[in-house]
Amino acid sequence: MKILVVGSGAREHAICWKLKQSSKLSKLYCAPGNAGISQIAECIEIKVDKLKEIVEFSVDSKIDLVVVGPEVPLVAGLVDMLNEKGIKAFGPVKSGAKFEGSKSYSKDFMKKHSIPSARYEVYTDSEKAIGDLEKFNIPLVVKADGLAAGKGVIICETRKEAEEAIKSIMDKKQFGDAGNTVVIEEFLRGTEASLLCFVDGKNIIPMESARDYKKAYDGDKGLNTGGMGCFSPNTIFNVELNQYIKKNILDRTLKGFLAEGINFKGVLFIGLIIKNNQAKVLEYNTRFGDPETEVVLPRLKSDLIDIMLKCIEGNLSEDDLHWEDDNCVTLVLASGGYPENYEKGKEITGLNKVDDDIIIFHGGTKLYGNKTVTDGGRVLAVTAMGNTLEEARNKVYKNIPKIYFEKMQYRTDIAKF
Ligand code: AMP
Ligand code: GLY
């Protein structure tokens, strides 16, 4: 099969790396890809939001399957456009991607189908939103309704802060039209967990669990980022919690999809907050997570192409998913200053010096002549498997001093809880 992966992060590198293991693959393309991906796939210079160009390339190159990594092209309807041309694509159509594209839509869906989540209100008028702040306890959370590159969620410790957040999102349009509507919700306490699921339209089948570290610095200090490290399996999950999630979240979400005629196929990534063996949904994403994918796919023993095709055909079963018992840890090496301002174009050295059992997934990197240079905030995801979490973590951290780029920044406490 000829496959095109859309995206340019460490998530897409991990997807390409896993697809490459399948005997069904004849040719792998990635648009636009990065320096690491270019070692295993042919990179095509098309950005992820150039939907028409992606479709044209897929038609011209007779692509058999397009795998869409990021949310932007999914929400914009890339899968619908490919399907119209008779091209198979892995990822939800626009109506499914709305679960990520609109937080108010997701919250209304959760409420309607009794899926545990934070209490909330939706506003399209900033004065009304500010007037209603008294109704919420402090801290509270203000969220831009649409896509805001992971920055549209503001946790407010005071009502004054909430007022500023509402003004900046709704009146000053900090996130453009994504902030025409806001969701205000109660702040939930607990431990976060990421549950990625394969969905084939009729079944929601969880992958192995993961724990993401969202804050920039050690001890969960600093700003929220896209994720600074991750491990799998997530030790917080146990039989009782799994049963709770199946009954109250997965089954009800599926029932809701079926009741509303939503033909969701692809990955549903459920962001959870867990307390006392019970879980509430923070959000739905409609794609693989980053860096979750970098720890989940290395543990997948089954053929990823088979799984993706079964999702599209609507006949995936739990028996199709087989997992390594080993633990997996990934550590993100970021550009100094991330997630705020950072420089690009720093030469990366030492990538070939790491131990054989280390997998380096590239995020923001590109080739500059024969050098690999930084090209984004999250640069590399350095990954290892181990019999125990500690073993996997030690393997990763032991190799970090071998890798260098100017102002490299990373957490030292990933997988240490
Ligand atoms: P979201 O994009 O909705 O997942 O929000 C991004 C991050 O904000 C989450 O991963 C949480 O860390 C935090 N967050 C979002 N909603 C809440 C909430 N209701 N209570 C506590 N933290 C939240
Ligand atoms: N790691 C969180 C995300 O992919 O949204």
Could you please describe the fold and organization of this structure?
The protein contains twelve helices and 23 strands. It is an alpha+beta fold. The strands form six sheets. Strands 12, 15, 18, 19, 22 and 23 form a six-stranded antiparallel beta sheet that branches. It has a five-stranded parallel beta sheet with strand order 3-2-1-4-5, with helices on both faces. The protein has a four-stranded antiparallel beta sheet with strand order 6-9-7-8, sandwiched between helices. It is 28% helix and 28% strand. The chain has helices spanning 10-19, 51-60, 71-75, 78-84, 94-101, 103-112, 126-131, 159-171, 239-259, 292-296, 304-313, 389-399, and strands spanning 2-7, 27-32, 42-43, 65-68, 88-90, 120-123, 140-144, 153-156, 182-186, 191-200, 204-206, 211-212, 215-217, 221-224, 229-232, 265-275, 278-285, 327-335, 358-362, 365-368, 371-374, 378-386, 408-409.
> What ions, cofactors and ligands are bound?
adenosine monophosphate, glycine
Structural class: alpha+beta
- Give the C-alpha Rg: 21 Å
Spans with pLDDT under 50 lasting ≥5 residues?
Answer: none
Give the DSSP E fraction (strand runs of 2 or more residues): 25-35%
What value does the average pLDDT take?
96
**Total DSSP helices:** 12
Separation, N- and C-terminal Cα atoms: 41 Å
**Number of distinct beta strands:** 23
Give the overall form: globular
Q: Determine the fraction of residues in helical runs and give it as a percent range.
A: 25-40%
The largest sheet is:
6 strands, antiparallel
